[in-house]
TrEMBL record:
The keyword ATP-binding does not apply. Belongs to the tRNA methyltransferase O family. CDD domains: UPF0066 (cd09281). PROSITE patterns: TSAA_1, TSAA_2. This is tRNA (N6-threonylcarbamoyladenosine(37)-N6)-methyltransferase TrmO. The lineage of its organism: Bacteria, Pseudomonadati, Pseudomonadota, Gammaproteobacteria, Oceanospirillales. InterPro entries: TrmO-like_N, TrmO_C, UPF0066_cons_site, YaeB-like, YaeB-like_sf, YaeB_N_sf. Residues 11-150 form the TsaA-like domain. Keywords: S-adenosyl-L-methionine.
């Protein structure tokens, strides 16, 4: 029998994400792969009562449960993890796919600050969430029970490899003019280092891609090095 759940399962977002990522394209596949990525979790009424976060600042990391609200409700039993090149298929429950029943996501993020001067706003680092993501729950991370370095991680045993990323002189000059130029440079290098190009396009002819980070459209292309390695170059910001 199906478990007895309140029907309809009444889940209300406790907050909404405002992040460096206005679009899904370009967001790293897991939190912590772009530690320069900033996000703010703005709690919504009635959860924006400062009492809800009393004691939370004593924890450095949080689990966020959220909804992949930009994914379709339709799901399939098999999915194609980008990590496997986009062709091999695994069961949806053997993946961290964004296309899943109930569309629930789980991210471990670093807590930087809590502002309760007007409602409750949590400043986070390393979130892999697009702006507007509804968050259903926040829990403090407990490393003594949840950090399991001995665990087997199937087809995703370690962080994905990264590409070398360069900045054209024009792009570098544009960063110099910005107050947040240093953190933005770090974010660009980390995000592009994850090679955000779609798996099926990675061998395609050189073309200019665009990824929006903060309020910028970062335009980049892939270059083949003499040794065959691929390097991404930011051509325009
Ligand atoms: N760490 C979470 C997990 O394991 O459940 C998310 C992993 S998922 C592979 C990360 C990707 O989700 C990002 O690269 C981004 O493209 C996508 N994403 C982020 N926010 C989303 C949203 N609100 N709706 C749909 N997709 C989203």
């Amino acid at each position: 029998d199906r478990p007895a759940l309140p029907d309809p399962l009444c889940l209300n977002p406790v907050g909404v994400i405002e992040s460096d990522f206005p679009d899904k394209f370009g967001i790293p596949r897991q939190p912590g792969l772009a530690t320069a990525a900033r996000a703010t979790l703005v709690l919504v009424p009635p959860y924006d009562d400062p009492l809800t976060v009393r004691g939370l600042s004593a924890f450095s990391h949080l689990w966020l449960t959220f909804v992949f609200h930009q994914s379709p409700e339709r799901w399939t039993p098999l999915v194609r993890p980008p990590r496997l090149g986009g062709n091999a298929r695994v069961g949806v429950f053997a993946s961290r796919s964004t296309h899943r029943p109930n569309r629930l996501g789980l991210s471990l993020v670093e807590l930087i600050d809590i502002d309760t001067s007007r409602g409750v706003r949590l400043t986070l680092r390393g979130a892999d969430l697009v702006s507007g993501t509804p968050v259903l729950d926040i829990k403090p991370y407990l490393p003594w029970v949840e950090s399991r370095p001995e665990a087997r991680a199937g087809f995703a045993p370690e962080a994905p490899s990264t590409l070398a990323v360069g900045l054209s002189p024009e792009a570098e000059a544009a960063l110099q003019c910005r107050e947040d130029g240093d953190t933005l440079r770090e974010l660009i290098l980390q995000v592009l280092g994850q090679d955000p190009r779609p798996a099926y396009r990675r061998d395609a002819e050189a073309r200019i891609y665009g990824v929006r980070l903060r309020d910028l459209d970062v335009r980049f292309r892939a270059l083949q090095e003499p040794d065959g390695a691929t390097r991404l170059e930011v051509v325009e910001i």
